[in-house]
Design a protein that fits this description.
two-stranded parallel sheet, alpha/beta, seven-stranded parallel beta sheet, 2 domains
């Protein structure tokens, strides 16, 4: 697996990155450019995308479009294949944060689901068959969230979308293993708290980073090392939450069902104290 991933992330190979103009997508794209990969970058902010593409010292195709549009994603695929011939790495990074609750109208959920979940499904539909039909290693990375694993209350639409990404990526990896013998693989990147415009609207690159979040560069260093190791789950810590804390939170959430506790017991008034005590053990 390690040698296969090194063959993918190498000079002359091609990566597609959605939501690439800023934040985690831009940081991943910059790292891949340094490693010599050709890049097809996709974002709806055309001005920011063009400026970022000009800053990279590699062969870059910049495509402006909306990940919620199948027509725009199809155009991304067609232009990428026409320019580079094949895609070796697909990074489904595009995301957005808009709150919608469990009994809000479906219309309030639609954009969150389309951008955070359906866009990745659509990109897989467009790019994965070509990867399977090809004759060389390839990989897909989908951006999940801890909110899609422990599903804290307060942002149901986003949690549902990211829970869907987790399940979709697990299913994709299983099917690819059967279909290609592991030549094509899927991976789930779960960021921690990160200094990005999504978490800090209005931030500028020149602003001082708060202490708690990781920089996007720190996240990418962690992610790339884990990806080159062939890991499926890449769950990132940050400056406030260590990996062992994440593991205990995930275990507690999973055991709600096993132990027949109330839904989201970590935040339930009868269980919150017990959760806090358990975390101290």
């Amino acid at each position: 697996m390690t040698n296969r991933m090194h063959a993918i992330i190498s000079t002359g190979r091609t990566a597609v990155v959605t939501g690439a103009a800023k934040g985690i997508g831009a940081a991943i794209a910059r790292d891949l450019a340094i490693r010599g990969m050709n890049l097809a970058l996709f974002d709806r902010d055309g001005e920011a995308l063009a400026a970022f593409a000009r800053s990279l010292e590699t062969d870059v195709l910049a495509v402006v479009g909306d990940v919620a549009s199948m027509d725009d994603l199809t155009r991304l695929r067609d232009r990428t294949i026409a320019r580079f011939g094949a895609v070796d790495l697909l990074i489904n990074n595009a995301g957005m944060m808009r709150k919608a609750g469990p009994w809000d109208a479906p219309e309030a959920w639609r954009e969150t689901l389309d951008v955070n979940f359906t866009s990745a499904l659509a990109a897989q539909h467009l790019f994965v068959p070509g990867m399977i039909a090809g004759d060389r290693p390839a990989a897909i990375v989908n951006l999940g969230s801890k909110e899609g694993i422990t599903t804290p209350p307060g942002n149901a639409a986003y949690s549902v979308a990211k829970a869907g990404i987790k399940v979709l990526t697990e299913q994709l990896e299983h099917e690819l293993r059967d279909a290609t013998g592991g030549r094509v693989s899927a991976h789930l990147l779960v960021p921690g708290y990160t200094w990005t415009p999504m978490n800090f609207p209005g931030m500028r690159e020149t602003d001082a980073k708060p202490e708690a979040p990781w920089s996007a560069g720190q996240l990418v260093d962690h992610f790339t090392a884990r990806l080159l190791n062939g890991d499926f789950y890449v769950i990132c810590p940050d400056n406030e939450v260590a990996s062992d804390t994440d593991a205990r939170r995930i275990r507690w959430a999973a055991e709600d069902m096993i132990q027949n506790r109330p839904a989201l017991s970590r935040w339930h008034p009868d269980w919150a104290g017990r959760f806090a005590d358990w975390m101290k053990q």
